[in-house]
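Spend some time on the protein that follows and explain the fold to me:
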Amino acid sequence: MEQSSAFRVAAFVALTAGMVLLSFGISGHIFKFGSMVLSSMTASSEISSPTESVPAGSSGMPAAGNPTPSVGGETPVAVGSTPSVGGETPVAVGSTPSVGGGTLAAVGSKPLADGPTPAGSAMVLKSAATLRMAGLAPLANGLAALVSLILMAFVLRRWIATQADLRGRFLKTFFLYEALSMAVVVVLFPFFWMLCTSFKPSGQELIINEANPFDIVPNEPTTANFLKVLKWDKPAGAPVEDEIERKKNFSTYFLNSLLVASTAAFLVTLFSSMAGYVFAKKELPYKGYLFALLMGTMMIPGMMYMVPQFFMISKMGLCGSKLAMFLPHLASVFGVFMLKQFMETIPGSLLEAARIDGASEWQLFSIIIVPLSMPILLTLFLLTFLFHWSNFLWQLIVTDFANPLSITLPVGLALFRGQYTSDLGLIMSASCFSIVPIAVLFMIAQRYFIEGMTQGAVKE
C-alpha cells in the first residue's frame, strides 16, 4: 500500500512538472506574440509621419550648389583637410570620396535629402519595435510564470482534496488532459508558425533562434508584409496606377474567392438536397439502378473530367469568368449520396400528415425536409465551400491573368512565388487572411455537426 502511494506521489510530481513546463511554454509564447503584435503596430504608427528635413547648408559644410564664400578670391579649406593639389578638390578627413562628381557632406553632418530615406525609416521602425519588445519581455515572462503557478496551485488543491483511493483515477484524468494539451500544441503549431513568420522581416523567415530553437516569435517584428499584401506601403506621392494594376491586389483576390466559394456552396447544397429528397422519399422507375450508376461515377478520378470540362467551358466562351470557376462542379454525387442517406432517417409519417393537411411537394420539401436536414445541409455547405476556396488547379486553368477580377485567392497566393525565389513573409501574411472565412464557418457550424449526429441516429 505504501509503495502504491509513493508511486502515485511520484507520478503526480512528474505530471505536475510537465504541466508547469508546458503551460509556461504555451503562455510565454502567447504573451510574447501579443507583445510582438503590440510593438509592431505601435512602432509603425509612430513612423507614419516623416522626419523633419534638414535644410541645405544647416550643417557645418555647405550643400551642393551653395559654395562657401571665398576670401580674396580663394576658396577656403576646411580645418584639418589637405590643401588642393593641381586644382583638385580635397576630401574631408574620414569621409568617402565622391563618385561621379557628387558633393559629400562633412563628417557628422546630417543628410541633405528632403526627407528620410526608406532604409532609414525601416531601421528606425525596426529599432523601435525591437526596443519595445525588449521592454515587454519581462512582463510576458512574468505573466507566463503567474499562469503556471495558478495552474499548479489549482492541481495541487484538487490533489489534496481527492481521497486516497480515488487518486489513481485522478492521475489518469490528469495524464489524459496533459496528453490532449500536447496534441493541441502539435496541431496548432503550424498556424502559430504562420502567424509569427508573417511578422518577420524579408530574408529572415527561416532563421532559427540559436539561443532557443523553440522560440519562433521574432524579436524584430514588422508589419511590412501585411502592408505589401494589401498594397498600403506606397508613399503618398507615388504615381497613380491604371485601373488594371490597381485591382491586382490581395483584397480583389479575396473577394473573388469569397464570391465563387459562397455561390458554389449554396447552389451545390440546393441541387443536392433536391436530388437527395427524390432518391430518399420518392418512388421512381429503376431508382435503385440509377442511384447505383451515380455511385459508380465516384470511382472515376476527378482528373479524368478536367479536359472535357475545360473543352465545354471554352466552347461556351466562359474562360476568364467567375462562372467558369464553379459551373462544372455544381453536380455533386457525394452531396446527393450524403443527403439521401440522411433524409431516409426522417419519418415518412411526417410527410403523410402534411399531405393530408394539403401541403404541396414544395411545402413538404421547404417546411419539413429542409429544417430537419439543416445540420447535414450546413455540413455539405461547409465542405463545398472549403473545396472551392482551395481549388487551385481548376481555377488556374480557367483564369485570365489579364483580367484581375478573374484571379482567385489560391491563384493569387501562387503569384507571390517567383521562378527562383519565394517571399515567405508575403505568402504567410496572405495565408493569415485566407484562413479567416474557414475558421468563422467552422465556429458557426460546429454545434450543427453534433445535432446532425444525434438526428441522424433517429429511426422510424
